[in-house]
Specification:
By secondary structure, this protein is of the alpha+beta class. The chain is built from two helices and nine strands, in the order αβββββββββα.
Length: 140
């Protein structure tokens, strides 16, 4: 009886796997926001905004990110999430990125290339009212 049972179990298991595995492959859905196609033109400007508050470096949520082309014809805005991260999709070109929070702001020059998928720009907002930045104010 045992000699007949083993081939029957192997046959049932083989048929089950042959029928169910293609079903699992078809039922897979990619994550939200993924198109499956590589980005050909431009890329994402991503990063995090940090600031020292009460001698502790903290992630800044709701900081405003303004991206403007060098000639000023195109502008995009974004805000950071609760963890201080932001993400903006940009076509290739030269940009001025302004990060502002409360009364503090900083500007950066950024280039997005045609074949660039990501461009990282992490920002540490400098507070001119902090003692460690006083020497920069004296030289300006």
């Amino acid at each position: 009886m045992e000699r007949r049972l083993l081939p029957a179990v192997v046959l049932v298991l083989t048929v089950y796997l042959a029928v169910c595995l293609p079903t699992f492959a078809v039922a897979y859905t990619p994550p939200l926001g993924y198109s499956g196609k590589p980005i050909k033109y431009g890329g994402w400007l991503v990063g995090q905004v940090l600031m020292e508050i009460s001698h502790i470096v903290q992630k800044i949520s709701w900081a405003k990110i303004t991206v403007t082309t060098a000639d000023g014809t195109f502008t995009k805005t974004a805000t950071t999430n609760g963890y201080g991260y932001y993400r903006v999709y940009l076509p290739p070109g030269e940009y001025k990125v302004t990060v502002s929070y409360a009364r503090y702001s900083q500007t950066y020059d950024v280039t997005i290339r045609v074949d660039q998928e990501y461009r990282f720009l992490n920002v540490y907002l400098e507070r001119p009212d902090m003692p460690e930045f006083q020497d920069r104010l004296a030289h300006k």
